[in-house]
Write a structure and sequence with these properties.
The chain has helices at residues 19-43, 48-70, 76-101, 115-131. By secondary structure, the chain is mainly α. It has one domain (19-131). Helix 1 runs antiparallel to helix 2 (48-70), helix 1 crosses helix 3 and helix 2 (48-70) packs parallel to helix 4.
């Protein structure tokens, strides 16, 4: 009788990048997504539904880039933390732009007049990184 050994990598394997590099890549991915969302919001102001579809696609694109490049071993908790960070960065940016410009600025989360579309964008920012997490079980 022979014993077979299996090479099994632990889900807690050494991360590909350090925490500070992952944080920098996460912020860079958010900046890229925020720029795409902001430009789409300005260019497609006449069609809010089409704009939201393209904006969600941009958010998802940057989320998959973040997960694939910075953290392919990400857990669901990690991805939701990144998503929460992206939502907070979006809120802080909108508040800052509103305060600096003196007029309301809703490019990243959408206008409150379209509550449903605003919720879609808010949820997209939050869960986009989690959509691309691979199960390690």
């Amino acid at each position: 009788m022979t014993a077979t050994t299996h090479s099994h990598t632990s889900p807690l394997a050494k991360p590909k990048h350090g925490a500070s590099v992952r944080m920098a890549i996460s912020v860079a991915a958010w900046i890229a997504a925020a720029m795409m969302v902001g430009v789409t919001n300005l260019q497609m102001a006449s069609s809010p539904v089409a704009a939201v579809v393209i904006e969600v696609a941009a958010i998802l694109l940057m989320a998959v880039a973040y997960i694939k490049i910075a953290c392919p071993e990400a857990t669901l908790d990690h991805a939701l933390f990144v998503g929460t960070t992206w939502v907070l960065l979006s809120i802080a940016t909108e508040l800052t732009m509103t305060a600096r410009s003196g007029r309301q600025w809703f490019a990243l989360l959408g206008t409150p007049a379209n509550g449903g579309l605003r919720c879609v964008l808010l949820i997209a920012w939050l869960i986009a990184p989690a959509v691309f997490v691979r199960s390690h079980e």
